[in-house]
Structure formats: structure tokens, C-alpha cells
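Supplementary Methods. Inverse-folding protocol.

Structures were first reduced to a C-alpha cell string of length 297. This string, shown here, constituted the complete conditioning input.
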């Protein structure tokens, strides 16, 4: 894998703009031909700050590409039954192509029960057991947005993956497990090692990685001594840390210590502006696919 003197950025921000442009052009062509726009809905329960930010940016991106967007804001006290009724309504509304239920949900609601209630053909987050099963079988499905975004970045940048050793740090249902599955499949053809909190010799495994995907949820966990020279490093982590020099009072950092790791690798995703923007774009791509399936065109 390439020369490590010049590290190149896997620029998710620029790629997201480009893909949004492609989607917007397609939507414009369809609506000028008299068709309705794709419709993405989101359900948010409670007022968790990060969740509200995520939903707001999903809504903004939907508008940018010409989608119809609706947000169902429900109070923290919403019962499981009320939420399930809302999901039933969305499942049956023919004008909605896809919807997401923003996680985490308040503690008194069974998250898996709620996910299981989402109609698989509207599950644009790809979290239902049906879509997860289809993904593992390599069937047509909705792939969860973050792993899909990582795959899009690697593919569109032409990163060589066949036969490469990919080490994935993390085994969550929304990132680590699906990304490990997707990169091991035909098309990417990586040899994948998936690590978690019980993994032994983590550093030695990381040092063997041609492609290191870090989704561990610990700020700046991966340091330069864990990275093989010339590796491709994908940092999924998002953490807010106080920073008095910023207008917002905080800055965003990842799971990788970029000031030292970036010198060592061939390609790296910046934080912010790497995986994050591609995550939202993947949700839009899934919604567009749902729309085509629903409208049969
Ligand atoms: P998560 O559910 O907390 O999972 C973290 C994983 O890392 C777990 O599998 C855990 O192992 C493993 N882990 C924790 N400490 C470890 C250690 N010391 N050594 C080895 N493995 C360890 O996190 P997630 O939802 O996958 O998210 C990961 C990060 O990505 C977070 O920072 C999150 O904010 C970010 N994220 C970003 C996006 C985006 O759009 N960019 C989307 C989703 C998430 P166990 O399974 O053994 O506990």
C-alpha cells in the first residue's frame, strides 16, 4: 500500500457534497416529470442534545436534496405503546418511503422491540432483523448508514481492499459488526479481524492492519505506535471536548490521535469531515432506493 510520506485525506465532506448533488439532480428530474419527491421521516423521543443535533442535520440534508422530510417529536414520557402506534402509522402511510427512530430511546422503552416493529421495506437505517439477515446473506437490503458510508469512501477513493488485512476495532450492531461483515464479502474481499474489549494483544493486531477501522468510542485511543506505516485508517469516533478557543466552546475529536497517526498512514479519514458526512448521505441513498421500490420506478 502506497508511500507513507504524503498522507491523503479520505474527504467525506467533499464526497458527501458530490453525492448529495447527484441525488438532488435525480430528484429534480423526477419532480419536474410530475412525480412526488422521496419522503424521509424521523422519530425522536425526548430531548437528548446529540440526538436532536443528528435529527436536525438529517432534516437539513433531506431538504438540500429535495426530499420531503417530517420529524415526529415525542416527549420523554412517551410510552412504548404510543411509540409503537406511531411506528404502525408510519409503516402504513403510503407517502412515507422510509423512516428512522433516533436512538438511544428513554430507558423505559425496549429498543429492540421498537426496531422489530419497523417495516423492513421502510427501515432505511437497516437495523431490523430482516435487513441484518439479508445483509449477512448478501441479499438486497438496507445497509446501516455508517458502515455503508465507510464502504462508499473506500470504493470511491479506489482504495485497494482485496486480500488486505482489515482490523476492525469494535463490534457494535451499528458499526463494527456490519462493517466487518461487508468488508469481508466478495467485492471488498478483505481478510477481517474484529476486535472488542476482551481482545488480547490489541496493539499487535492493529500493527498488522493494512486497513484499520476504529469504532471503539474512546477519544484518541489509537496512537501512532499501533499503526503500521502506510495503513489506511478510518476513524468512526465522534467526541465533543471542551475548547475555549472555539465559538461553540467545544471541538470534535475521534477515536484516533490524529496529530501523530496521520504522519504514519497512507490514507486517513479526518474528524470531523470523514465518516460523519457519509453516514447522513447513506441514509439519503437508502431512502431514494426505498422510494424507487415503493413507486416501482
Ligand atoms: P459502542 O456501541 O460503544 O461500541 C464500542 C465497541 O468498542 C464495543 O464493541 C467494545 O467492546 C469495543 N471496545 C471498547 N473499549 C475497548 C477496548 N479498550 N479495546 C477493544 N475494544 C473496545 O460504539 P459505536 O456505537 O460502535 O460507536 C463507536 C464510535 O463511533 C463512537 O465514538 C460513536 O460516537 C461513533 N459513531 C460515529 C458515527 C458517525 O456517523 N461517524 C456513527 C455511529 C457511531 P465490547 O463489545 O466488548 O464492549
Amino acid at each position: 500500500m502506497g508511500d507513507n510520506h504524503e498522507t491523503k485525506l479520505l474527504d467525506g465532506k467533499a464526497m458527501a457534497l458530490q453525492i448529495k448533488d447527484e441525488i438532488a439532480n435525480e430528484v429534480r428530474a423526477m419532480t419536474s416529470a410530475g412525480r412526488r419527491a422521496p419522503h424521509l421521516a424521523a422519530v425522536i423521543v425526548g430531548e437528548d442534545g446529540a440526538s436532536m443535533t443528528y435529527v436536525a442535520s438529517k432534516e437539513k440534508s433531506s431538504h438540500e436534496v429535495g426530499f420531503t422530510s417530517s420529524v415526529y417529536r415525542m416527549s420523554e414520557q412517551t410510552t412504548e405503546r404510543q411509540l409503537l402506534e406511531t411506528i404502525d402509522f408510519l409503516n402504513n402511510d403510503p407517502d412515507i418511503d422510509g423512516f428512522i427512530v433516533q436512538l438511544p430511546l428513554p430507558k423505559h422503552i425496549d429498543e429492540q422491540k421498537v426496531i422489530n416493529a419497523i417495516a423492513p421495506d421502510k427501515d432505511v437505517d437497516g437495523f431490523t432483523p430482516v435487513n441484518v439477515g439479508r445483509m449477512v446473506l448478501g441479499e438486497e437490503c438496507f445497509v446501516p448508514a455508517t458502515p455503508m458510508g465507510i464502504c462508499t469512501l473506500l470504493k470511491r477513493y479506489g482504495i485497494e481492499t482485496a486480500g488486505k488485512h482489515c482490523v476492525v476495532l469494535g463490534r457494535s450492531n451499528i458499526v463494527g459488526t456490519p462493517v466487518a461483515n461487508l468488508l469481508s464479502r466478495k467485492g471488498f474481499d478483505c481478510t477481517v479481524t474484529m476486535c472488542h474489549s476482551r481482545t488480547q494483544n490489541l496493539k499487535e493486531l492493529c500493527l498488522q492492519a493494512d486497513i484499520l477501522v476504529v469504532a471503539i468510542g474512546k477519544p484518541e485511543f489509537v496512537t501512532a505506535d499501533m499503526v503500521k506505516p502506510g495503513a489506511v485508517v478510518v476513524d468512526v469516533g465522534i467526541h465533543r471536548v471542551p475548547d475555549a478557543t472555539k465559538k461553540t466552546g467545544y471541538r470534535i475529536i475521534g477515536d484516533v490521535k490524529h496529530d501523530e497517526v496521520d504522519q504514519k498512514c497512507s490514507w486517513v479519514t479526518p474528524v470531523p469531515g470523514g465518516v460523519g458526512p457519509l453516514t447522513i448521505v447513506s441514509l439519503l441513498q437508502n431512502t431514494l432506493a426505498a422510494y424507487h421500490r415503493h413507486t416501482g420506478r
